[in-house]
Amino acid sequence: MRFFLAPLFALTLGLAFFGTTSRATAPASASPVGWAWVGGLTDAAAVVTAKLDTPVPARLELLDTPPSLVAPVQTAPMDGGTLHRFHLGGLKPDKTYSYRFIAATGTPLDDEARSFRTFPAPGQPSSFSFAVGSCARAKNSPAFAAAATQGARFFLHTGDFHYADIAENRVEAFRAAYDAHLAAPRLRTLLANTPLLYQWDDHDYGPNDSNRTSPSRDASLRNYRELVPHFPLIVTAENPSAPVDQAFTVGRVRFILSDLRSERDSSGRRMMSAAQDAWLRAELFAARDAGCPLIFWVSSVPWNGAPSKDDRWQGYPVHRTEIADFIKANGLAGRVVILSGDAHMTAIDDGSNSDFATGGGAPIRVFQAGPIANRGSYKGGPYSHGARYQSLPTDTLNQFGLVDINDDGRQIRVTWSGRQGADGLGNQVLVSERDAQGPIQLEFTVQ
Length: 447
What we know:
Elements: E1 33-39, E2 46-52, E3 59-62, E4 73-78, E5 81-88, E6 96-102, E7 114-117, E8 128-133, H1 142-149, E9 155-157, H2 171-182, H3 185-193, E10 196-198, H4 202-205, H5 217-227, E11 246-250, E12 253-257, H6 274-289, E13 294-299, H7 317-329, E14 336-340, E15 346-349, E16 365-368, E17 387-388, E18 399-407, E19 412-420, E20 441-446
Parallel strand pairs: 8-9, 9-10, 12-13, 13-14, 14-16
Antiparallel strand pairs: 1-2, 2-5, 3-6, 4-5, 6-7, 8-18, 11-12, 15-16, 15-17, 18-19, 19-20
Helix pairs in contact: 1-3, 2-5
């Protein structure tokens, strides 16, 4: 069986450090590790970025396993440390790896427990859960602690990692904005054992409602490529400023993350460039042809809503219909579901209000999850299973979505539920306050 277009990660790079290292530990209170972030995860590889305050280059060591790593790439200095990037290859599917950072002498930088679990092999029926959310204006959201408590396999961040709204073309400004959030205790703790997979939106890409004309575009793209542990991007020597579209697979589930900011043409009313649009369609074809029953498409802005002139898909109705027509024409309406960001609310639509194909025929289920930490707002809609967004002017909502995947090899049962994260536990399912009554949750199957 053939699985998708993404490269096989040239991350069989590994096997660079074979020396024996000391097992001595340093007290956590004196840790020079500002934060560590695992992403770009597959069944055989991972990417780790970290802020390390060390006078000499540090290394990453996988514990209780033969060494399998490459030398770090020091991309830029950061306040009080250096940004390191590690590519790990030669890993085994569905296996937990513990790791630590060590100095050139072999001495561990601290004793904090860190680990990640690789994905199951593509095509292998697998059950798992993950958290999804967007819009973290406030740092240190308890929603991150709640996602960890719920046992999320990973956290899928659908945009607005921060709200710095950076308009200056300096990569250092972006470094500082990400660093401030990554160092916040709850997110830092989540990242110690949970991968965070991420696509940006406007506030973390550039200024509010930003697009390809953003004055900080080049610095933002460079920072994403270097600081974020992402999946392979469509970057070439001829086009080093390519958008950050990417995709990955977990078992029989495909995830496609579209960059809806860095190539957006607001004057021409195109959410993506022609190349991005072609890439999206090719990814959808590849997932279908590989027999993938379920495809999550991450849209950092809401899909639902009547045509308008706003910053969401509502303001790009022709482009939206073109994509819906493609999904309809190729029999993908039942397989493709959308995870959306941008709106400061949690909402679910079963396809009743999200069919924008010509003449209908492409109802797409939509899960709008958030905000991780922000005041509420309602966008798009209506939503068949309701929306939760209201807050007092001084309140900050701490919400996220939980997605449960149960794959028995014959069909995949999917359960979506909006969760209250304010208590750091996430056990409470959100109750709708608009468009519908009852809990914001939906269960469906695909095969």
